[in-house]
Amino acid sequence: MAMTGRNGTLRMSAGAHGSIRFAMEQSTMTDVAELLTPMLDRTVVDHTKLKGTYELALDISMEDAIDVLRASGSALPDIMGHGPTPKADPNTAAEPAGGTIFAGLQELGLKLDPRREAIEMIIVDQAKQPTEN
């Protein structure tokens, strides 16, 4: 399965030993941080100061991938040829473990440091369908 984002392409496929491979092409470190944010259920901010685009692959366990996608209320895409995993109820979804995510990032030479900092956010309280003039 491939998704094209703002600055690159993300491909999800079956990896070795029952893992899921997230492969990113032409992606910035900010793109990587944006990919990690829903996986870890917290905001990830790029502080690497690395410029340019990169190709990288991150393998995480099937269990962690399923937990991440269920926690976000998403369905697991059909990458194994058995049909998509149904969406989970977001009110009962498990928290993502993230263990293999941290190990995978470490293999890439990246590290996540937990810290608190102010970030800019836009909150939409209400949206309405536009009407004809």
Q: What would you note in describing this structure?
A:
Helices cover 23% and strands 20% of the residues. By secondary structure, the protein is an alpha+beta fold. The chain has one domain (2-107). The protein has a 4-stranded antiparallel beta sheet with strand order 1-2-3-4. A hairpin with a 4-residue loop joins strand 2 (9-14) and strand 3 (19-27). The protein is globular. Mean pLDDT is 75; it is low at 84-98.
Q: Structural class given helices, strands, pairing?
A: alpha+beta
Shape: globular
Q: How much strand?
A: 15-25%
Largest sheet: 4 strands, antiparallel
Annotate the secondary structure layout.
Elements: E1 2-4, E2 9-14, E3 19-27, H1 29-40, E4 54-61, H2 62-71, H3 99-107
Antiparallel strand pairs: 1-2, 2-3, 3-4
